Amino acid sequence: MNRVVVFGLGRFGGGAAAARWFAGRGERVVVTDLAGETKLAATLAGLADLDLEFRLGRHEPSDFERADLVVVNPAIPFDSPLVELARSRGARIVTEFGLTVELLGGPVAAVTGTNGKSTTVSLATAMLAESGVPVALGGNIGRPLLNEAAGLGPETVVVLEVSSFQLAWLEHDRFAPRAAAITNVTGDHLDRHPDFAHYAAAKGRLARAVPPDGLLALPTDDAVCRGYAGEARSRVVWFGPGEPEPVDLSGLRLLGPHNHANAVAAAHLALELGADPDACARAAAAFRPLAHRMEPLGERDGVLVVDDSVCTSPE
Predict the structure, then answer these.
(1) Taking Cα atoms as reference points, which of 181, 172, 263 lies closest to residue 219?
(2) Which pLDDT tens digit goes with each residue over 3-28?
(3) Terminus-to-terminus CA distance in the chain, angstroms?
(4) What is the pLDDT of residues 248-298, one digit of tens each?
(5) What's the whole-model pTM score?
(6) Are 75 and 165 in contact (CB under 8 A)?
(7) DSSP tally for the chain: helices H, then strands E
(8) Helical H runs in the chain?
(9) Helix 277-286 crosses helix 257-272 at what angle (to 10 degrees)?
C-alpha cells in the first residue's frame, strides 16, 4: 500500500477525483488543504463514502516526508517547498490531469488560451455530438475525467479544456492530442506564474504536444500565438480576420467577433476528429452562450444588457 497525498483538495473536482481514484485502488490517501471544512463542505460531502485522512486548514510537513506519491493541485505555487520536500524524499509528483491523459485510449482535442477556452471546447463537443461522433468533455471546464478515462472506448473523442497551471505542472511528455487550439495569450495568472514568459511557455507546451500527423489551430491576430507556429511539429491552420472558415457559421448567435473566432477554432478541431461540416453548422446555430460569458439578459429602453461577469482579463 502506497501513501498518497492529495495536495490541495479545492472545489473544482480534480482533487476529489484523484482521492477517489487512489482510494479505489486500495492506497492510503491523505487529503490536505489550507481551506477549512466550511469552505470545502460540498466537496467533502462527495467523498463521505471513502476512507480518507484529512488535514484541513493546514499542511503537515510530515505527510510530505512520508509520501510515496503526491497529487498536486494545479493552483499550488510552482516553488512550493512541500513539493520539493516530497521530491527530495523520493516521492513521485503527479497531477490529476497528467494521470488522466495517460489513461485515455482514444483521440483527444485540447484547447488552451487566456480567454475563450470553455466556449471553444463546448462548441467543438456540440459539433462532434451533432455529427454522431461519441464524445466526452472534461478538464479545466470543471469536469475531471480521471475516474471515467479508463472506461472510454477508443472510438470516443475526448475534448479537454487545459489551463496554464495544468500544462506547467504536467509531469510527462506523453500528452499528444490529435488536434489542439490556442485561442489567445495575454497576461493572466501572474500572481502564480513568476512572469509572462513562464505563463506563455506553459501555454506553448500544447503547441509542441500535437504530433506530426495532427493539427494545431492558431489565431492570426495574436503575436504570441504566431510564435508558437515555429515550435509546432504538426500541421498549422489559422483562424481570425481574413482567414477562410471551414464551415458555415452564418447562424451563430454568439455575440462578439472573438466568439466567432472561437467557433472557427472549434470547427477546425471537430472536422479533424470526424465531424460533418453541415452538422457543425447546425450545432453552431443551436449553441447558446455559457453562463456569464457574453450572455444576453434582455433589452430595456433599447439597451442590450449582457452578463460577461466571468471575464476578468482587461484585454
Answers:
(1) 181
(2) 999 999 987 789 999 999 999 999 99
(3) 49
(4) 999 999 999 999 999 999 999 999 999 999 999 999 999 999 999 999 999
(5) 0.94
(6) yes
(7) 12, 13
(8) 14-23, 41-45, 61-65, 81-88, 96-103, 117-130, 146-149, 164-169, 196-209, 223-228, 257-272, 277-286
(9) 140
